[in-house]
Design brief:
- Helix content is 72%, strand content 0%.
- The protein is built from 5 helices and no strands.
């Protein structure tokens, strides 16, 4: 049993060693010229102006959650599209119901103004 997994173990050890060697070489041979500009905190091209614990607008989180929600729902379309012939008419009907609910939710969010960024 171990003989079956030995090549994989050898491959992982060699790959890990090679990766560690490259990181170590970059650390040893890489140029180090620190200055105040490089060591200063960076925030979108300008100096940070407030505390790092400042509050974000709730709309930012709402848009992020909506993006994740609709992105995950679209991800359900890929397995359906791959097995479309095997699913037949029932699969098409169930996906139509799924997409209908998705569109209703999207229109609801649109009408509520959740997608507006003022």
């Amino acid at each position: 049993m171990l003989a079956n997994y030995l090549p994989i173990l050898v491959f992982l050890v060699i790959a890990g060693g090679f990766g560690a060697m490259l990181i170590a070489l970059g650390f040893v041979l890489g140029p180090r010229r620190p200055n105040t500009e490089k060591l200063s905190p960076y925030e979108c091209g300008f100096e940070p102006f407030e505390d790092s614990r400042m509050k974000f607008d709730v709309r930012y989180y709402l848009v992020a959650i909506l993006f994740i929600l609709f992105d995950l729902e679209i991800a359900f379309l890929f397995p359906w599209a791959v097995s479309l012939r095997a699913l037949g008419h029932l699969g098409i009907a169930s996906m139509a119901v799924f997409l209908g609910i998705l569109v209703i939710g999207f229109v609801y969010e649109w009408k509520k103004g959740a997608l507006e960024w003022d």
